[in-house]
Each structure stands twice: as C-alpha cells, then as structure tokens.
Amino acid sequence: MNRGSGAASCPSSVPGDGHSSGHSESRREKKIRVSLPLRRGPSAFIPEKEVIQANSLNERTHLLVEEYSTSGRLDNITQVMSLHTQYLESFLRSQFYMLRMDGPLPLPYRHYIAIMAAARHQCSYLINMHVDEFLKTGGIPEWLNGLEYVPQRLKNLNEINKLLAHRPWLLSKEHIQKLVKTGENNWSLPELVHAVVLLAHYHALASFVFGSGINPERDLDASNGYRLISVNNFCVCDLANDNNIQNASLTSNNFGISDSLSELEALMDRMKRLQEEEDEEASQEEMDTRFEKEKTESLLVVTEAFDDEIVSTADVSRYVEDPGFGYKDFARRGEEHLPTFRAQDYTWENHGFSLVNRLYSDIGHLLDEKFRMVYSLTYNTMATHEDVDTTMLRRALFNYVHCMFGIRYDDYDYGEVNQLLERSLKVYIKTVTCYPERTTKRMYDSYWRQFKHSEKVHVNLLLMEARMQAELLYALRAITRHLT
Length: 484
Description:
Layout: H1 21-30, E1 33-34, H2 48-57, H3 59-68, E2 73-74, H4 76-81, H5 85-100, H6 107-119, H7 124-136, H8 152-155, H9 158-166, H10 173-180, H11 189-211, H12 236-241, H13 248-251, H14 260-277, H15 284-300, H16 314-317, E3 341-342, H17 348-359, H18 363-376, E4 381-382, E5 385-386, H19 391-404, E6 407-408, H20 415-420, H21 423-434, H22 441-446, H23 453-483
Parallel strand pairs: 1-2, 3-6
Antiparallel strand pairs: 4-5
C-alpha cells in the first residue's frame, strides 16, 4: 500500500513533461508559495522529512498545483496527499471543478457551503482556508459574522448539512422537498446537487485533515480584517500529546500481540488464509449473521474520549446550528430498527453516478475517477513486504466505513473485517470517520506500527472517499425518491 519510488506517469491532462525549462520558468513567474506551517512540517503525525522528500522529488506535484489549486499554494493538505501523486491529481481536479468551473452555484456560495460543512467538525483549518477564498471571490464580508447574516436559502441548508455530516441515514425525500419547494428561497435540483457534493466533500476532507494531523498554516492571508479562527479545543499541539486521555481500547490488542513485527506477520498470515478460503462460499444466512455481528460490534468500538462533549469555540459555532447534534451509532440498541441500506438497491455505479452527472454536468465522471483511483491504488507492498495483493485489505477498510453508516454489500463477507482490522485500527477508523475532531496522535500511532506513513495516509484517503460516497448515496437516494 505504500508509495512507490517511481513517480507516476504524467497524463495529458497536465501539459508538458515537467522537465522543460519552460515549466520551471512558468513556475518562477507564477510564484507558487509553499505554506509555512506554524509547527514543524505539514503534519503533526508524520515526520517532516518524509513529506518534504516526497515533494522535493516530485515536479509533478508542482504542475498539479499550478493547474488545479484554487489558492495557488502548495498547502499542507496537498503536501501530505502528494505521497500519492496519482490520487492527488484526481482529488485536485474534482475539487477545482466544484469550486471554480461552471456550475449551478455562484463562487462565494461554494466557499460558504465549504465553511458550513467544515464547521460541523470544528475544522478551523478548512474554515480559515475558505473564509479567505470566500472574500477573494467577492463574498459579502458580513456573512462571516455568522449564519444569522446569510440569505435564508443558505440557512435552509443547515438541516441537510447536519444530517449528512453525522447521521446521513436520516435524510429523506421530505428534506429534499422542503428545500426545493420553499417559494422564493427554493433550491433548484442542480443547485442542490452542487451543494450536496460540496457538503459531502468537505465533511470527508475534515476527516482527512484530522486523521493526518494536518498542521495549521501561518501564511493564510488575514489582511481582509477577519481574524483567523484559532484551532479548536482539541488543538494540534494537544492532539500530539493526546490530551492525556487514557484509553484502554488503544492499549489492548485483539490478537494479544505486543510486538509490532509479529503483528505485521500475523496480518499477512490472516490475509493469506482468507485468500485461500475465498472459494469456500458461506451461506446467505451466515453472511447475514456476519454483517449484523460487525454492525453490532462497531457499537463497542468507542473511546472514553467520546464521553464528554467537545465545546466549539465561538469563532466556529457561528457557522453551526444545533452544535450538540453528532454521530450516533446506526445500530444503536433499544431503538427502532432502522432499515439497512442494501448497496445493491441503490449503487453509485448504477444510480448515483448518472443522477449527479445529469443534474451537475461532468462532476459524476470526476468523482467516479476519484473513487476508483483510491480503491484500486496499490504499490503491491505492505510495510517491508513486496509483491503483496492488498485488495482484500483495501476492501475491508472501505466496507467497514460503509458498515458504520448502515450500508451493506450482500456479496461481501463481513467476517473479513474482523479478521483484517484489529481493534486499535477500528478505533482509529471510527474516530476519523465519525468524530474526526477527536483524533489523536496516539490513535494514529497505535495501529500498523511497522507500516510506512505513506501507507497510513493511503488509509486516510480510503476512509475519506468511503465516507464521501456513503453521504452521497444517502443524499442522492433521497433526491431520486423525491423525483419518483
């Protein structure tokens, strides 16, 4: 899963081969700025030299930033993502399209929606970035005083922003009808699809920011008179120290292995055994049981850190309605049984893709390429091992995220999740996906201790895209039901 030593080939979408003097000349003219983090390196979790080395070797990253960055800056997110250049291109192209290219929503609206989405997870990094972009694209400064200053149309997005971020399974066609039938403040369906794509993108990107320990930057332009938001209470410096949270889940291990090397060997053995057993088909009844077991067990994957509410700062809460609303387990005991979202009934490939593409031209193709890219991305390595087929591991990570959101694949054996994802990794996945603002360095360090940082970044990319796809499936299904 780790990054290969060879740079990715340069497809035709980015001009030139990255070696001509013209390119270095144009780069000097454009003066791409590399953000200077407040603390050492772009990430509090990853040694600076690993990220810097990847960027210094990679002319291609600079070409991508020239072509697709909205800020003209090689920011900390891009620097960390550049450990996987092929994916980075798909990411930057789709984000650039959402924010800059022709689309139903005016540019300032796009950035304000990004702010609203990031605020659900108190992601001050993304809020600051889009406050800056909002003002640069002609946004009305007064809107930055809080939601009570924005047009009613934008305020009406609060409910689906909240549900998509924390409990997307509650989104119904009634929520869609309310938005498209509110008289003068109504949303057209193309506008709503654009807004939904932005909301899902920035909720998921907040997961990546916190999961990768992205450091704040010191060179964001605050000259417009708007004070930059301080990092939320769980600030990066605290994250690195883990807020002194004692967490039994992170110190115990399902497999009773303390030595990280034998942990790696044990994982390799389990993968090999599962691959050998793949031909032995389980009965449908057994498959049902395994899914229900995994869904129920995901309830137990919690940390003491979740017991207390994180209080958001006033700077962040101005963009949030109902701040106490958060993720609640899909499979909570003692509640009405929510119907599982059977992936076969509404798939991205057969349903979501065509709907989103019809209402917001071309974004479907870009998102599809990004989902496929992250799902198939491999270097056929695992820590110190080469020539390893990691398909099974990538599938388990993706499907576990969807399982926590109540999405089930009938043809997938959820027994694999339990075999391949040990407890500390499950704690990490659940935190990054459902409560990203609570992610700590100790959680990041506690799983896959023999693996390279680039492999853990790959995990974060998978979690981010699985989360975004889950949100989109619920939202697009609700829109489809409204249309039929």
